Amino acid sequence: MTSSTQAPPRTTRPRGRWRTVDLITVVLLAVAFGIAFVGWGAVGNVLQPLFSALPPLAGLIYGFYWIPAVVAALIVRRPGAALLAEIVAASVEPLLGGQWGIATLGSGALQGLGVELGFALLAYRRWTLLPAAVGAAIAGVLEAAYEWRLYYPEWSFGYISLYAVTMAVSGAVLAGVLGWVVVRALARTGALAPFAAGRDRAAGRG
After folding, report:
1. For residue range 156-183, what is the model confidence (pLDDT) as tens digits?
2. Cβ–Cβ < 8 Å for 96, 35
């Protein structure tokens, strides 16, 4: 069969069955990012004064929190990978003293769900930058709504709308684009050889 007649793995529906390597990879990635979240939270605290005049603009730095969902989905290419990665990462963060405590579990679930929706919109057939960025933007909107009720009930609809926009933009860039770049970089090293993401890169398709 010639390359012109082969269907690239990134455009085919993923197999339903999870392999052991898939599960282990998602969990390890999530734990690593959960640890990184604690450091990112410290960075966020330092940057907060920059947004004191217009607090919703702080959403521009929060998209990093759903990068594990994007990275896991792009590597493993299984429905549910994004959701699992975010929930695990959100579970690790409070164990390490994360400032938001158990509330991060709700955030993780919504962020993972948002990223899942991005890939689900294309029936889990495309594992590219577009669904990654779209899903990460959706995650930002869901997270903004969650935080409105939990942390900022006094905010006006205009404020929360701006927050949703900044969270969506941040998600698309810091999770969607950055996550896609991370996966491509890992693929170039050969670390993703057991996955379609690595084989795509080796075949010149990624």
Report:
1. 999 999 999 999 999 999 999 999 999 9
2. yes
Q: How far apart are CA 178 and CA 155, in angstroms?
A: 30
Model confidence at 76: pLDDT above 80: yes
User: Considering only CA atoms, which of 83, 144, 129, 125 is closest in space to residue 108?
Assistant: 83
CATH assignment, 16-202: 1.10.1760
Q: How far is CA 66 from CA 98, 124, 176, in A?
A: 15, 19, 9
Q: Which helix (H) or strand (E) holds 28?
A: helix 20-47
More confident residue, 106 or 200: 106
CA distances to 80, 118, 119, 135 from 200, rounded to whole Å, are: 21, 21, 18, 22
Question: Letter for the amino acid at 25?
Answer: T
* Residue 18 φ/ψ region, left for φ over 0, alpha for ψ in the -120 to 50 degree band, beta for the rest: beta
CB atoms within 10 A of CB 50: 12
Buried b (16+ CB within 10 A) or exposed e, 125-155: ebbebebbbbbbbbbbbbbbebbbeeeeeeb
User: What are the tokens at 60?
Assistant: 């521009």
User: Which residue reads 């896991």 in tokens?
Assistant: 72
Q: For residue 113, give the H/E element and its range.
A: helix 103-120
